[in-house]
Design goal:
mainly alpha; elongated
């Protein structure tokens, strides 16, 4: 029985180490401005997933880090541009429509993942853990 416990402990330690490495590397990839936007969004997705899995035994511990990740993603000018072009429906909206919608969809899925972790951790109605865009936070402060 002791060998089984030691084996499980070693496997868990190795898994957490690999998740930490994945988180670090995906954060580095997200910060690489030479990458195309879909690749940067995917990198942030891996970072968020690694963050959540690292804290699988206590999901609420991952929320602060996830919030920072999603705020970094929201503040990317290229990501903001995708939403702006899609919402304005101007002439630019006719070009690269499929790629832009795929990016918007990926960003929305990541927001949903974090929302689901938040609801699992805190339940509905807790205004202290809402994920807001940095501009919204500035407006609420006054």
């Amino acid at each position: 029985m002791t060998d089984l416990v030691e084996s499980a402990t070693t496997l868990l330690f190795n898994a957490k180490t690999r998740l930490g490495d994945a988180h670090r590397k995906s954060t580095e990839a997200f910060s690489d401005e030479a990458l195309k936007l879909p690749d940067r969004v995917a990198a942030m997705g891996y970072s968020i997933m690694a963050t959540i899995l690292e804290a699988v035994d206590e999901p609420s511990a991952a929320l602060t880090s996830c919030r920072m990740c999603i705020e970094r993603l929201h503040s990317l000018p290229a990501a903001e541009g995708c939403f702006a072009v899609e919402l304005k429906k101007g002439l630019r909206g006719r070009f690269s429509k499929d790629e832009r919608r795929e990016i918007i969809s990926a960003v929305c899925r990541l927001n949903r993942v974090i929302y689901d972790v938040m609801i699992t951790s805190y339940g509905f109605g807790n205004k202290d853990v809402l994920i807001r865009h940095p501009q919204d936070v500035a407006l609420h402060r006054g």
